[in-house]
Amino acid sequence: MERKSFGNMQCPVARTLERVGEWWSILILRDALQGLTRFDQFQKSLDIAPNMLTRRLTTLVDAGMLERRQYSDRPPRFEYVLTDLGRDFRTIIVALNSWGNKHFAPEGPSVMLVDRDSGKQIDLGLVDRNTGKEINGREHIIVAGPQADELTRERLDSLARLREAANEARLLEQADELEAKPRKTRKVSEIKAGKAGQDKPAKVKAKPAAKAARRA
Prior knowledge:
The chain is mostly helical. It has 7 helices and 2 strands. The longest helix has 66 residues, at 150-215. The chain starts with 11 loop residues before the first helix and ends with a helix.
């Protein structure tokens, strides 16, 4: 069965998967970003079948992420060098490495991103360069861009409605919790006030009695 193409979808995630959605392609780019360029180097690193490696390299060249350059005439041999488009994939590889270490390395990390000078492990986070704010799901949302078609706008509008409904339900739940909390506090206060009220009259009555005893 022929695989569905994501190339015509407006979603940038889908378009990216169209070019690097096969796991061998991602691993080839991972190794290319570490400096590997030649067929035998990729094959040794990945332990991949030659015919599969050839197909994946061809796909990445066609996608514009690798450039095929001849480095030997006799015999003719080629290497695969990252393009600017391919080098931009470093952000994705770094994020995958961080996510994998966080969720799928119970024994501890075996591959880490560290600061070259200090050797300290990087605490990865996405930051908006315009504001310096860290990207999160509370303050940042996905919206339709200026070139979005009707289908994309409908899909994002539907997601926005679901998000608003979920936020409203969460706010109502928080309001119920806040409303219940003062009642509990009030009951405790009333109990304490009641005890204090019982003690005070006894102390007030005790003072005149004590004075009368001293006079006698």
